[in-house]
Design goal:
This protein is mainly alpha-helical. The chain has 5 helices and no strands.
């Protein structure tokens, strides 16, 4: 099993846990400020996990630079929603906005690289 596949399975497992745990009364009262962002994190971890499994099992071999960029983006992108669920005012911070841009850009860059690799 490739590293991408392993991380994809872990993301799906994490997705299955965060929503029910995040909606428990003690967490919801003290930690979760935005339930929609928590739901978005749950879905994004799930779909990013599916995409990593796809890339790790079907789209092999990949260029060596793609794997770390894809892992970074697919882990950080849903994490943005997790962070937003507990700190909804944080997106106003310029450093945090840079983190959001980097995570989204990493996913986009990696998938463009994959597409180019598949076509060529």
């Amino acid at each position: 099993m490739t590293l991408l596949t392993q991380i994809g399975v872990l993301e799906i497992a994490f997705s299955a846990v965060i929503l029910p745990v995040g909606l428990l009364k003690p967490f919801q009262d003290k930690l979760v400020k935005d339930r929609k962002q928590l739901l978005q994190a749950h879905l994004d971890y799930f779909f990013m996990g599916i995409l990593l499994i796809l890339a790790g099992s079907i789209l092999q071999p990949l260029a060596s630079w793609i794997e770390p960029v894809l892992i970074f983006g697919s882990v950080c992108n849903p994490t943005v929603f997790m962070i937003n669920s507990v700190a909804p005012d944080l997106p106003q911070n310029p450093v945090y906005r840079l983190f959001i841009l980097a995570s989204c850009g990493a996913v986009a860059l990696a998938w463009v690289g994959i597409v180019i690799g598949v076509i060529v």
